[in-house]
Amino acid sequence: xxxxxxxxxxxxxxxxxxxxxxxxxxxxxxxxxxxxxxxxxxxxxxxxxxxxxxxxxxxxxxxxxxxxxxxxxxxxxxxxxxxxxxxxxxxxxxxxxxxxxxxxxxxxxxxxxxxxxxxxxxxxxxxxxxxxxxxxxxxxxxxxxxxxxxxxxxxxxxxxxxxxxxxxxxxxxxxxxxxxxxxxxxxxxxxxxxxxxxxxxxxxxxxxxxxxxxxxxxxxxxxxxxxxxxxxxxxxxxxxxxxxxxxxxxxxxxxxxxxxxxxxxxxxxxxxxxxxxxxxxxxxxxxxxxxxxxxxxxxxxxxxxxxxxxxxxxxxxxxxxxxxxxxxxxxxxxxxxxxxxxxxxxxx
Length: 348
Ligand code: ADP
Fold this sequence. Notes:
CATH class of the largest domain: Alpha Beta
Number of helices: 11
Strand content: 15-25%
Number of strands: 12
Helix content: 40-55%
CATH superfamily of the largest domain: Histidine kinase-like ATPase, C-terminal domain
Number of domains: 3
Radius of gyration: 26 Å
CATH topology of the largest domain: Heat Shock Protein 90
Oligomer: single chain
Mean pLDDT: 89
Bound molecules: adenosine-5'-diphosphate
Strand order of the largest sheet: 2-1-5-4-3
Low-confidence stretches: none
């Protein structure tokens, strides 16, 4: 008998691990008898010692009511999780017998994100593209209607038109990157990388292209005596994009010829901290928490003038969510501004 139960448990474990959806078996009191690894990913570890009403908490979904009923149940609900990822689950509950209820958890986050991104995309894009387009149309009309424009003015207009067209191009590139990372932010990357590689590569490509405001970027690695290399679960191109955006901002909003520091520390065995520090006008405290909102700029006109799209930090935020990394921003006016990222380390 106990051999059969062992076999059954073994089979359940194997089948459960094959499923991307969460799968729970609970008794009529709500005690979780079996949970597959996807269910643990959604609801937390060691579920088999817990009651389902503790782990699926919702005012709209009273699970214990279903467990107590004698009637057949076969229901489906939406459930919004209260975690950082704001995952949306679809929950299916089916009574197998008087003793056993099966609960399936389907991750609907991707579909929900796709819908939201599509909705926001249309309204933001039309608004942001309108201003360069209006400028372009204005100059085209002037050039077409006024044949007497001298060569110098014509050249000046064409230069402005060229800048506006390039700005539209950058906007479109950034909007596409953002919508991609936003929809995928709940999926952790499948590769591991050494955190130092993308950082070094961004610094050397910025050095090569010539730093526009004669800054100096210094990498201060305080982990030289630690276990190496410092591996994180990461997508190389996305992490490169994070540091490109942070360094470009440090240059754009930093003082001319000032130093930019990249400090790497490992405060404990679990995480590596990368801090990008620049000296500049800084950011008023009241704006700090809004910086990663799409299209938020402290000074819109200035950001535009220096070629900003207002999307750089939103892209950084979503890439970091996907990497389960955290971002802290600090700034002292006319002194230092720091972007500190904590990445979870993996052991090799
Ligand atoms: P932008 O394209 O405008 O640079 P970002 O999303 O990269 O857009 O940044 C949003 C805003 O955050 C910027 O417009 C700027 O006001 C502020 N900001 C970002 N980085 C810095 C920094 N290092 N120092 C001061 N302000 C910054």
